[in-house]
């Protein structure tokens, strides 16, 4: 489990298949360990469906609990206070 946590700390949110490929663990082992880590509160996981070149890929997306993803680049929406003060 320590290997998975280290990988997620270093690389951010990843799919279970990516974690398995990077750590050398089987996909079944990664899913089992992610379930245990999620129950303990160390990671946050959710089931996702992605389409890559028209191919449906289902898996588990996970990230370390308490980590906040970087905001996406680009223009940010106006906030309520900015609209009211205008």
TrEMBL record:
<feature type="region of interest" description="Disordered">
    <location>
        <begin position="63"/>
        <end position="86"/>
    </location>
</feature>
<protein>
    <submittedName>
        <fullName>Uncharacterized protein</fullName>
    </submittedName>
</protein>
<feature type="compositionally biased region" description="Basic and acidic residues">
    <location>
        <begin position="77"/>
        <end position="86"/>
    </location>
</feature>
């Amino acid at each position: 489990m320590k290997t998975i946590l280290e990988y997620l700390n270093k690389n951010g949110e990843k799919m279970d298949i990516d974690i398995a490929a990077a750590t050398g663990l089987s996909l079944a082992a990664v899913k089992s360990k992610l379930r245990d880590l999620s129950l303990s509160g160390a990671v946050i996981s959710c089931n996702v469906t992605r389409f890559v070149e028209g191919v449906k890929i289902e898996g588990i997306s996970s990230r370390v609990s308490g980590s906040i993803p970087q905001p996406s680049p680009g223009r940010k929406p106006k906030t309520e206070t900015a609209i009211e003060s205008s």
